[in-house]
């Protein structure tokens, strides 16, 4: 499974962005896709996750301004961020938890990350 994140950029406070994460490879084996962010000098934290059954989970903070969704036909997961704030400035990464079965029947469980997309919010 490979992931390609995009959609970041420089925006002003109060504006919105939609980040995209396109999956390729053995996408049928994906169990969940999450968006994480890492601000300068800070650890990488989960923002939101969407599960295989369509259910979603959000971190307690930030909540309310972030919406995760997916388009199965496009193998794409989105993160809509509204009312952006300077503290939202970070590199946003998508990741996928997957389980695939190799040719010999051996299951492989893993997590893969996209390359990250930078969101910069000016005040």
Structure overview:
With 123 residues, this protein is mainly beta. 0% of the residues lie in helices and 60% in strands. It contains no helices and eleven strands. The chain has strands at 2-6, 9-12, 17-24, 30-38, 44-51, 56-58, 66-71, 76-81, 90-101, 107-113, 117-122. β4 and β5 form a beta hairpin. The radius of gyration is 15 Å and the shape is elongated. 26% of the residues are buried. The mean pLDDT is 95.
- Topology pattern, helix = H, strand = E: EEEEEEEEEEE
Question: Globular, elongated, flat, extended or rod-shaped: what is the shape?
Answer: elongated
Q: What fraction of residues sit in β-strands?
A: over 45%
What class would the helix/strand composition place it in?
mainly beta
Radius of gyration: 15 Å
Largest sheet: 7 strands, mixed
Please report the total strand number as a whole number. 11
What is the overall pLDDT average?
Answer: 95
Distance between the termini: 37 Å
Helix content range: under 10%
Enumerate how many helices there are, as a single number: 0
Q: pLDDT under 50 segments (min length 5)? A: none
């Amino acid at each position: 499974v490979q992931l390609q994140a995009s959609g970041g950029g420089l925006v002003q406070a109060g504006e919105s962005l939609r980040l995209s994460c396109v999956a390729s490879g053995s996408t049928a084996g994906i169990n969940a896709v999450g968006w994480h962010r890492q601000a300068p000098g800070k650890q990488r934290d989960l923002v939101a996750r969407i599960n295989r059954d369509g259910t979603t989970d959000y971190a307690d903070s930030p909540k309310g301004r972030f919406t995760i969704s997916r388009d199965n036909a496009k193998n794409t997961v989105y993160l809509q961020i509204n009312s952006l704030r300077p503290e939202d400035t970070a590199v946003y990464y998508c990741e996928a938890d997957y389980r695939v079965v190799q040719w010999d029947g051996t299951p492989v469980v893993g997590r893969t990350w996209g390359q990250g997309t930078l969101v910069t919010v000016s005040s």
